[in-house]
Amino acid sequence: MSLSSLLKEFCRYVDLVVTADSHIISANEGTAIGLATGHNLATGGLPLVYMQNSGLGNAINPLLSLADPEVYGIPMVLLVGWRGAPGVKDEPQHVKQGRVTLALLEALEFPYRVITGNTQDAVEAAIWACRTATEASSPVILLAHKSVFDQPNGELLVSETVPLASMSREAALEIIISSLPSGTVIVATTGMISRELYEIRGRLKQDRSYDFLTVGSMGHASQIALGISRSKPSSQVVCLDGDGAAIMHLGGMTTIGTTNVGNLLHIVLNNGAHDSVGGQPTVALEMSLTGIARACGYDEVVGPLVNEHDIHEQISHLANTVGQRFLELRVLPGSRKDLGRPQENPLANKLQLLGRLRG
User: Fold this and answer.
1) Of these four, 123, 154, 331, 355, which has the most CB atoms within 10 Å of its CB?
2) The total number of structural domains that make up the chain
3) For the segment 8-37, what is each residue's pLDDT rounded down to a tens digit?
4) pLDDT at position 155, please?
5) pLDDT computed for residue 93 by the predictor
């Protein structure tokens, strides 16, 4: 349950050997704790929740106010990927979280062990975790260093198609960028969308100073964009969101749809997959994001769109209207193997944008 870019090999193994009814990719880490609790209550079985250490923040409330031995005492094992571990080179958004992870686990007061690439030690730790969780009626945490897991044997069949879609996300982003008026403030969600936006700007030799690349805090880009939009009501603000990120904190759409201040265009590029963690599926192709946006009160809702002409036409229209607007684009999963990362650090990105917002 839940996801982790550090546990890609583990995720692939789970997809190969675990039946679909026993493996749920939840909306976020907190909901995964709730699912695990319900499973334990109904069956007495010991659930496993896996996540990245950046996801612990989403899980802390249900862990402490629901699963803790001083509350309901729900046994479960958490496998947590340790991004930004001290001494391991990582991206800026993971360094601080990695440095404080052990202190955070100590504060939670749950039993935990750190596992490395030693197979025997990992097996012993797994046995210990299952026994301790059951005996203590408590969550137990296994903190996994990078490269703990080997590539699994067997071919994982990841869908490479989205119904009706024929365009890559990067191609769709280039159409969006080329169709927006200059000076539009863009907030891009974490993962591939921010990286692709950065490269497209460079390729087209465009100004990056109006862009905010949300390298962490998955699922919150739309609220960052809303905060800017409400504070700069005369500006056009665009949120470039992913389907997994939008679903992770879907309640944010209610706040957007019910506000009457500012001009925000919320674009979701839906490929039905968590691309950054190996292509695990989301449920975005089994639901209506546009239906949710309408129910939340967005002033105008368009999509899903799949072809270049319609995307260009609707971006040009929506970017020149007012209010809260929603657009869903269907794109293919996957990204270029040579996709780079922003050269500037997050603070430099912020300072560039401040020059535009406060200048």
Assistant:
1) 331
2) 2
3) 778 777 878 888 888 898 999 999 999 999
4) 53
5) 83
Same domain, 175 and 137: no
Domain that holds residue 49: 5-144
Given this model, what pLDDT does residue 7 score? 73
State which H helix or E strand residue 187 sits in.
Answer: strand 185-188
Q: What is the DSSP letter of 168?
A: B
Q: Are strands 280-281 and 273-274 parallel, antiparallel or unpaired?
A: antiparallel
The answer on 70 and 190 residing in a single domain is no
Low pLDDT (below 70) residues in the chain = 1-6, 151-161, 277-278
In whole angstroms, what is the distance from residue 169 CA to residue 50 CA?
A: 27
Whole-number pLDDT of residue 17: 82
Judge if 199 and 254 occupy the same domain: yes
Q: Is the peptide bond before 62 cis (omega within 30 degrees of 0)?
A: no
What is the pTM for the complete model shown?
A: 0.90
Q: Tokens for 288? A: 């209506």
96 and 21 assigned to the same domain: yes
- HSE (side-chain half, CA atoms, 13 Å) at 341: 12
> 306 and 224 in one domain?
yes
pLDDT of residue 153: 65
**213 and 126 in one domain?**
no
User: Would residue 233 count as lying in a domain?
Assistant: yes
- Please name every residue paired with 330 in a beta bridge, in sequence order, or none if there are none: 270
